[in-house]
Amino acid sequence: MRNMPEYRVVRNARVRSLRLKLFPNGALQVVAPRGVGPRAIERFVAQNLDWVARKRGELRERPATALPDSVSLAAIDERWRLAWDAGTFSADAAERLLRIPHARATPAAQECLRQWLLERGRAVLIPWLQRVSGETGLRFARTRIATQKTRWGSCSSRGTISLNARMLLLPAHLVDYLLIHELSHTRHMHHGASFWALVEAHCPAYRAAERELDTIGRQLPAWSYFYPLV
User: Fold this and answer.
1) 3-state SS class at 126
2) Is the pTM value of this prediction over 0.85?
3) Same-domain status, 209 and 177
């Protein structure tokens, strides 16, 4: 058997078949339904070794996303300078300096920057959501932070709120609106009149916020988006 690549298994009850995802840093992920055993997963990966090799080749040839000299987190009024190919990753809070251990024009550098944004999102957005929840009386069960491709957030029927770490690139008043929006879904799992009435009760200017989001959302930096190759 050819050499097997390293891979990480993620369980997802909503998928019905095994899937592969290849990330910008070359990491391989297997998305598996519950109940599929390790041997079946290993056979699936082995059957798709040519696909993995081809996609990794495409990744190496892909033009790197232009990366900035600094990153502005408008939501919390922070600006971080970036140093590239710095040996090891570090985030110096006192100097507001990120040291990225990859050459600037590489997918790995973009992935490292995105991972930092995720960590910053967890540190900032979770307590922010908790505060807004306390102010509005809208309770949630748990939360998770990701970098979704098309959504700012979502709320499950069980009260789990998913937030996009890219919110940190928005002005603070838009983050407040988005948190209220998702918290309102803990009461109304739809976008009907009762939902918008609840949103308006806590954010009277929500219509203006929606219009602003539509504009500013298209202006966020390309590096903050995360697109696997599949």
Assistant:
1) helix
2) no
3) yes
